[in-house]
Write a structure and sequence with these properties.
Elements lengths: L2 H25 L5 H24 L5 H28 L7 H21 L7 H8 L13 E10 L2 E6 L2 E7 L2 E2 L14 H14 L3 E4 L12 E7 L2 E2 H7 L4 E2 L10 H14 L13 H14 L6 H7 L4 E2 L16 E2 L2
Parallel strand pairs: 3-6
Antiparallel strand pairs: 1-2, 1-5, 2-3, 4-8, 5-6, 6-7, 9-10
């Protein structure tokens, strides 16, 4: 358990004991004010420690921190109400006590409301709280992630970014989206939808970031392997959750977010959306056979890159009808560049 949380609970317990001593002194007509003043200071310290615990420990959600604060505030309200009852019984002035108890109770309810709104398990509780109140600055990069800009779109799981001063292809880690116009398998179901969704997400983002895992950063095609983020949301996970990608190509140790992606896949499959609504897997031979003739009819055939560049001087990408794998020397999804 978080040290600050332990200290907070211990401080709250001591507060209760100190307040109780104050009640006893009050009943015996001894000086009780000092005990109650100490109680107020200690419960304040307990509240601060609870918030510090939630902010410093990623395993303790911010919601749990605010719930603890809410519980402490309710104890304060109860304590003040007890004092009010004692004053009323002894026919002493009790002005203000109910008001203070009410303020503590309302503040406690506000703390519980924030705890309810906050999403548990967020890796960065400060970003989580800022997101609730709309204060998060999405133009600032997150630690461990590298800001990039889009150079061009290839397909659902591959994008070319401007990275380290040059254009580079990025393959989205741990997922696979259906092909759009592969020279061998043709177009697969939901391939165009996946490509369009990736493009939609990245074009709408004010900040795009890439995050590498602990293993190899590139594959044998010299494509970078990364998790892609649009305004802080992982695109890899979004595609899986919406049924436009499947968890695939699991190569340890690049498995940091494997469980997170598998959980998203379970949700999509249970909802039977996207690729999970099909009668057969999207990469099944059934769909290759159905689309094979259409793909061959639409293919633009060039003997070599010299011929292709006469029509397309900048080369073509993988989703283009003229793309051929044999003309893509570095296998980056851009032929004859």
């Amino acid at each position: 358990m978080n040290l600050f949380l332990i200290l907070s609970i211990i401080t709250a317990l001591i507060t209760g004991v100190t307040f109780g001593i104050g009640l006893v002194k009050r009943a015996t007509s001894k000086n009780h004010k000092q005990s109650w003043q100490v109680s107020i200071m200690m419960i304040t310290v307990a509240i601060v420690l609870a918030l510090v615990a939630a902010l410093m420990d990623t395993e303790l959600s911010l919601g749990a921190g605010f719930s603890t604060v809410g519980a402490y505030l309710i104890l304060i309200a109860i304590g003040i109400f007890i004092i009010h009852l004692m004053n009323k019984t002894e026919k002493r002035a009790a002005k203000g006590h109910l008001r203070y108890a009410g303020i503590a109770l309302v503040t406690a309810l506000a703390a519980f409301a924030i705890a309810f709104l906050v999403v548990d398990g967020d890796e960065d509780p400060v970003r989580e709280l800022n997101g609730i109140f709309g204060a998060e600055d999405r133009s600032l990069p997150t630690e461990g992630r590298i800001p990039v800009t889009v150079s061009s779109f290839i397909d659902g799981d591959t994008t070319r970014f401007n990275f380290n001063g040059e254009e580079a292809s990025f393959r989205y880690l741990l997922i696979d989206t259906p092909e759009t116009n592969h020279p061998r398998v043709g177009a697969q179901p939901f391939g165009k939808e996946a490509s369009a969704r990736t493009k939609e997400i990245l074009e709408a983002a004010s900040l795009i970031e890439v995050e590498f895992d602990v293993g190899p950063e590139q594959d044998h095609y010299d494509r970078y392997l990364a998790y892609i983020y649009a305004d802080g949301e992982m695109v890899n996970e979004t595609l899986v959750r919406e049924g436009l990608a499947q968890v695939k190509y699991i190569n340890p140790p690049n498995t940091k977010y494997l469980e997170q992606l598998e959980a998203a896949e379970v949700e999509a499959e249970a909802a039977a959306i996207g690729i999970w609504s099909l009668d057969h897997p999207y990469d099944s031979d059934v769909y290759q056979e159905e689309s094979g003739n259409d793909i061959r009819d639409q293919q633009e055939n060039f003997a070599n890159c010299t011929e292709l560049r006469q029509v397309y001087p900048e080369g073509v990408y993988a989703d283009h009808a003229a793309y051929q794998l044999k003309m893509d020397g570095n296998k980056d999804g851009h032929a004859c560049e």
